[in-house]
Amino acid sequence: MENSQHTKPDVDRAVLQDATLVVRAGMTSAEQGQSFMPGPVFAAAFHAAGEPGAVPYTYGRYHNPTWTAYERALGDLEGGSALVFGSGMAAVMAVLGSVLRPGDVIVMPSDSYYTARVLVDSYFANLGVEVRRAPTAGGAQLEHLSGARLVWLESPTNPGLDVCDLPRLIRAAHDVGALVAVDNTTATPLGQRPLSLGADFSVASDTKALTGHADLVLGHVAVRDLTWLQQVRAWRTQTGSIAGPMEVWLALRSLATLDVRLERQCANALGMASYLASSPKVEGVRYPGLPTDPAHALACAQMRRFGTVVTFTLPTQQSAERFLAASLLITEATSFGGVYTTAERRARWGGDMVPQGFIRLSAGCEALADLLPDIEKALHRAVT
Ligand SMILES: *Cc1c(COP(=O)(O)O)cnc(C)c1O
User: Fold this and answer.
1) Same structural domain for residues 290 and 204?
2) Which CATH number fits the domain that encloses residue 156?
3) Listed residues 255, 289, 320: the one ending a domain
4) Whose CA is nearest to atom 7 of ligand 1?
């Protein structure tokens, strides 16, 4: 009782702006002498006597308090209920595996994330799932919806950065009785909220901008429907596609800076995209936030931020390699969304239909005033 004058009611999270929400997302309620954020809980087994249903935590593959804290924060950001997975692909697989049965039809972008396409082709097609493909740009999926069980969308796509009209496709898919999943990795829930746009599943690799420090691999699924929440959770429990508590705790800690990171990274992405678009040495610059981008109008209608990734093409493989080698501030690496500006020549992997000189650039948190002269010098050396 003595301390009761020091406790405060929890704030109503539903009314908060994103910047406030991400800062408050992982916090404990104000109890005297407690840390702002609980530490990671490492446990295989928890104290659990008697009836297991009456104990909140029993075994580490079923649940973990650190997951609960992260999932609550993600749920607030997504406008639904979230489940954390050991990687983005584990989250993708959880939705595909929970929904698809032999004889079902999946409609998928021909330009979606490479490994998701490989998974569907190598695993689900062999189980007797019919796979229909159409490119993301132009809404070509609309012609393939009849009889579909699941429509898989990705917008903006990695690496092409094409955008599809999500509300329109989601409505059309629901009209034929299909479920819709959106891979929201490039946007993050601060850039785009698939569940608010009508999707049944929002899926993401938290490895990228959401956690943003290039130091962990993680994914999540968010849903509004509690039956699907149960089924996707059962998938995680039964397949064991779980995340370690340390990674999840790092992710929760990283969420607090999501809004400020994105503010800087999106501004840097736009600044670099504008510069690249103005250079005669560069072709095909794509960034949904660029007013001249073919996806700009659609992106403005459904996105609140345009993301951290910019793509462009240099004339040849050699000029792209020279550019990457000559830049001192762009770190050569795969993946994207981190505080470090990174880039790679995407065709070195194979699998994506991109030119040999195609570069995927991920804007970090550095000063644009340092990045632009560095890019200018590297371009000067790479392309004559
Ligand atoms: C990286 C990525 C994934 C896979 O996520 P991992 O965390 O690497 O397993 C899925 N979708 C998109 C769009 C991605 O960029």
Assistant:
1) no
2) 3.40.640.10
3) 255
4) 88
Is residue 4 over pLDDT 80?
A: no
What is the length of the chain?
Answer: 384
Distance CA 287, CA 308 (A): 9
Closest ligand 1 atom, residue 154 Cα: 13
CA of 335 to the centre of ligand 1 (A): 8
Full residue range of the structural domain in which residue 89 is found: 13-255
d(CA 255, CA 308): 16
Residue 183 contacts residue 157 (beta carbons within 8 Å): no
Q: Identify which of 66, 70, 78 has the alpha carbon closest to the alpha carbon of residue 18.
A: 78
Q: For residue range 186-203, list pLDDT tens digits in order.
A: 999 999 999 999 999 999
Residue 313, helix vs strand vs coil: strand
The SS3 call for residue 119 is helix
Q: Has residue 5 been placed in a domain? A: no
Same domain, 247 and 345: no
Ligand 1 in reach of 88 Cβ (< 6 A): yes
Same domain, 162 and 309: no
- For the domain that residue 348 is a member of, what is the CATH number? 3.90.1150.10
Cα(344)–Cα(359) distance, integer angstroms: 6
Classify 307 in phi/psi space as left (phi over 0), alpha (psi -120 to 50) or beta.
left
The string of pLDDT tens digits covering residues 322-339 is: 999 999 999 999 999 999
**Span 50-61, mean pLDDT?**
96
Summarize pLDDT for 282-302 with one digit per residue, the tens: 999 999 999 999 999 999 999
> From the alpha carbon of 208, which atom of ligand 1 is closest?
1
What is the 322 CA–ligand 1 centroid distance (Å)? 27
